[in-house]
Automatic annotation (TrEMBL):
Pfam families: Aldolase (PF01081). GO terms for molecular function: lyase activity. PANTHER family: 2-DEHYDRO-3-DEOXY-6-PHOSPHOGALACTONATE ALDOLASE-RELATED, 2-KETO-3-DEOXY-6-PHOSPHOGLUCONATE ALDOLASE. SUPFAM superfamilies: Aldolase. It comes from the Bacteria. Homotrimer. Keywords: Carbohydrate metabolism, Lyase. This is 2-dehydro-3-deoxy-6-phosphogalactonate aldolase. The keyword Cytoplasm does not apply. Belongs to the KHG/KDPG aldolase family. InterPro entries: Aldlse_KDPG_KHG (IPR000887), Aldolase_TIM (IPR013785), KDPG/KHG_AS_2 (IPR031338). Pathway: Carbohydrate acid metabolism.
Length: 211
């Protein structure tokens, strides 16, 4: 088992996925998400000028909030993320070299997995948490079946087709982290709309946590 950086004890394991956001929009969006109670924000690298957005987000957000990149595919991108101040790395796949470089920078990692082979490789490579993607295809039952063979203390996240409307379905099988993309943010959305969606997601998460 490779060295890892543990997933932090966040109040809510909700990751905002801001695919397509522009640098001029990031500060107001970060403010809205933090006010609503989000503590993890991801800017996918196929967004316009993503490292600029990440750098601005890092300067804007409180220190305890995870700020990072999604759709990270190459080691060089990990280094750029580190230079921008990011401390969260999310990938759509399992690339051990990318994970290990992120760990060497002290980053929290959440690689994307779909099969038992990928999930076990990610765990072996030092992942802090796993992102089952696309969760809507696997469904809670598929994730539950794979979860049975994974380390018991490894946080499990669902991403892809996930919203506050179906948190409960995944919660029942032990999923405690959710990545929210289009249900939370679409390019062009204003901060007030993002905040209202974020508040709704936080309320749904808190209701499950309280049960």
């Amino acid at each position: 088992m490779t060295a890892s950086v543990a997933w932090p004890a966040l109040r809510r394991n909700l990751v905002a996925i801001l695919r397509g956001i522009k640098p001029e929009e990031i500060e107001a969006t970060v403010d809205a998400l933090v006010e609503a109670g989000f503590e993890a924000i991801e800017v996918p690298l196929n967004s316009p000028d993503p490292f600029n957005s990440i750098e601005k987000a890092r300067k804007r957000a409180p220190g305890h909030v995870l700020i990072g990149a999604g759709t990270v595919l190459e080691v060089a991108q990990v280094d750029r993320l580190n230079d921008a101040g990011g401390n969260l790395l999310v990938t759509p796949n399992v690339e051990p070299g990318v994970i290990s470089r992120a760990v060497s920078h002290g980053m929290v990692t959440m690689p994307g997995v779909f099969t038992p082979t990928e999930a076990l490789l990610a765990a072996k490579s030092g992942a802090a948490a796993l992102k089952f993607f696309p969760a809507s295809v696997l469904g809670p039952s598929g994730i539950s079946a794979i979860k049975a063979i994974l380390p018991a203390n490894l946080p499990i996240g669902a991403v892809g087709g996930v919203s506050d409307a179906n948190f409960a379905d995944y919660w029942k099988v032990g999923v405690r982290a959710f990545g929210l993309g289009s249900s939370l943010y679409k390019p062009g959305d204003d901060a007030a709309l993002i905040r209202s969606r974020a508040v709704k997601a936080v309320a749904a998460y808190d209701a499950l946590s309280a049960e």
